Amino acid sequence: MSMQTPAGLAPKAGHDTGDLQDRIAALEAAVEELQERVPDARRVTILVFSGKQDKVLAALLIGTTAAAMGMDVTLFFTFWGINVLKERRAYAGKDLRERMIDFVTPTGATHMGVSQLNLLGAGSRMLQRMMKDKHIVSAQTLLQQAREAGVRLVACSMTMEVMGIRREELVSGIEVAGAASYLVEASRSGCTLFV
Amino acid sequence: MSMQTPAGLAPKAGHDTGDLQDRIAALEAAVEELQERVPDARRVTILVFSGKQDKVLAALLIGTTAAAMGMDVTLFFTFWGINVLKERRAYAGKDLRERMIDFVTPTGATHMGVSQLNLLGAGSRMLQRMMKDKHIVSAQTLLQQAREAGVRLVACSMTMEVMGIRREELVSGIEVAGAASYLVEASRSGCTLFV
Amino acid sequence: MSMQTPAGLAPKAGHDTGDLQDRIAALEAAVEELQERVPDARRVTILVFSGKQDKVLAALLIGTTAAAMGMDVTLFFTFWGINVLKERRAYAGKDLRERMIDFVTPTGATHMGVSQLNLLGAGSRMLQRMMKDKHIVSAQTLLQQAREAGVRLVACSMTMEVMGIRREELVSGIEVAGAASYLVEASRSGCTLFV
Fold first, then answer.
1. Looking at chain A, which residue has its C-alpha nearest residue C124?
2. pTM of the model
3. Same domain, residue pair C17 and C50
């Protein structure tokens, strides 16, 4: 208690004001602690692990819809998901295994398979045609729309190192960061998805 | 400060009460802001993307368990996940591609494959038999139990449009809503899963 | 209002202090309600459903990174994910179907396939070799590191029952708990992932 009212004048009020001060200080500490440790419902962080067309599409649709609703959205591309961010291949300086990984993984958002219903690639083509008929945009277009809508697109630095992907192979406007950076963002987000 | 104590009477207390008022007003603003932006630990929102038996089963088991614990649970079925909600096929008025999608996708919770261990369908049958032996209920039964337990079951409107699924093909008691509706619910939920 | 200042002395201040008390009491109730119902941004709960090497690896990498950042991390292994926790097989007392499940599911973190890029097992070997080259540790090592870093590793009791897995088949330091236990932890966690 930092303050004392003059004795006799308003003792009860004085006592109460001190009491109130204690309760306010306790509330301030509790609110500050809450502000530090609660996630924000207006933040969405999606870990895009899969490189399958349908899953990446779902992640991008959720991301762009959330951004359109005014939410802060981060898409963190890791493992196979990082392939969607590749624009071109760079072979110079890559060792044989990195080139092999290059050869068997897709480049960009147009050559991905689907996770289900993949009858010799028919699922992928069917999905694309039906989406076109219904005027649903492709993963490639959604990636650009997401960027324009202010969605943070982050490529996992460890995945890039393991798969031998160079920064210049990625489409423009992509951040590169590690798992710790993902966790900082995810821990502040109300909605966290692993796709 | 909205209030002034009579000068001379209790100037110090007056000053302090005004001070307290400011701190209380700041706390009220901070608490209101927190109430608006924090997710609720008692809410669970699951995005059921997969149509695989084992994954749908996991989503339904988590959903019904959470509902039994008094939590508010929403299952949002999208992409392949929507097939679990299909009760019957309606061919009338569908174009060829929609009928093809119909032909290759399962109807209802009994004809789904599993995501792993699928030795020519043996995985699916083995899982069902073992679950039966251990008295674990099937996806179909769980879907009904979830509905009865008050779990909100929502079908993604965009998926229905893309796949050419009619409302009358879905089991009863299913809401139809879009991605924005999912995000409103997910942003209020402490636990958000993509299955 | 529980308190009254002596009339005439400082009526206005008295009125205000009572007012303040009401507002503080309302704040205290609101803060207490928030403390009870908000998830904690410093808690991460991952449901490891998949038994695929790459997905388990991602879950373990996120978990150990979060633990290294001082977060409280729980990995709940269910369905196929539980296989990563198996150290040895116990056949005694198992029925034929349980032995069959045993035969077709992997034991431990060294014999898992990958979810994508699995060219007759080449994806799995390629991933392991590239990770070795880049000094990224294996799932088996990460499992041990996670345990040492204080990550809670929980095996789903229902999965163990359905698959006929005995407690003595699991690596040491694993808790066994049900879906309700998972939900209590997930509802307190800011970051919840289904892998």
1. A101
2. 0.80
3. no
Same structural domain, C75 and C166: yes
Residue B171 and residue B135 share a domain: yes
Test the C interface: residue of A79, A160, A185 with most C CBs within 10 Å:
A79
Cβ of A191 under 8 Å from any chain C Cβ? no
Q: Inter-chain contact B190–A190, Cβ cutoff 8 Å?
A: yes
Which chain C residue's Cα is nearest to A182? C62
In the numeric block, which tokens belong to residue B157?
């409107």
CB atoms within 10 A of CB C99: 12
The bridge status of strand A40-48 relative to strand B175-177 is unpaired
Starting at the edge strand that comes first in sequence, how are the strands of the sheet with A152-156 ordered? Answer: A175-177, A152-156, A72-77, A40-48, A189-194
Looking at the structure, tell me whether residues B5 and B63 fall in a common domain.
Answer: no
What DSSP designation does C108 have? S
Partner residue opposite A42 with nearest CB, options B27, B80, B187: B187
* Closest CB to B39 among A5, A13, A39: A39
Together in a domain, B23 and B75: no
Please tell me whether residues A92 and A183 are part of one structural domain: yes
Same domain, C53 and C31: no
Asked if the Cβ–Cβ distance from C130 to A163 is below 8 Å, we say yes
Number of domains forming the structure of chain A: 2
- Any idea what the CATH number is for the domain that residue B66 is in? 3.40.1260.10
Q: What residues make up the domain containing C57?
A: 39-194
Residue C47 contacts by C-beta under 8 Å, 6 or more apart in sequence? Answer: B58, B62, B193, C76, C78, C81, C182, C186, C192, C193, C194, C195
pLDDT in single tens digits along all 195 residues of chain B: 344 434 444 444 445 677 888 999 999 999 999 998 999 999 999 999 998 888 999 999 999 999 999 999 999 999 999 988 987 655 566 666 666 566 556 666 555 666 765 544 556 666 666 666 665 566 778 888 899 999 999 999 999 988 888 898 898 889 999 999 999 999 999 999 999
Q: Is C172 on the interface with A (CB under 8 A)?
A: no
Chain C neighbours, 3+ Cβ pairs < 8 A = A, B
Chain A positions in Cβ-Cβ contact with residue C27 (cut-off 8 Å): 27
Q: What tokens does C1 get?
A: 């209002």
State the complex-level ipTM: 0.77
Q: Using a CB-CB distance cutoff of 8 angstroms, which residues of chain B are in contact with residue C193?
A: 193
Among the partner residues B21, B38, B123, nearest to C38 by beta-carbon distance: B38
Whether residue C83 is found in the same domain as residue C159: yes
C179 near C159, Cβ under 8 Å?
A: no
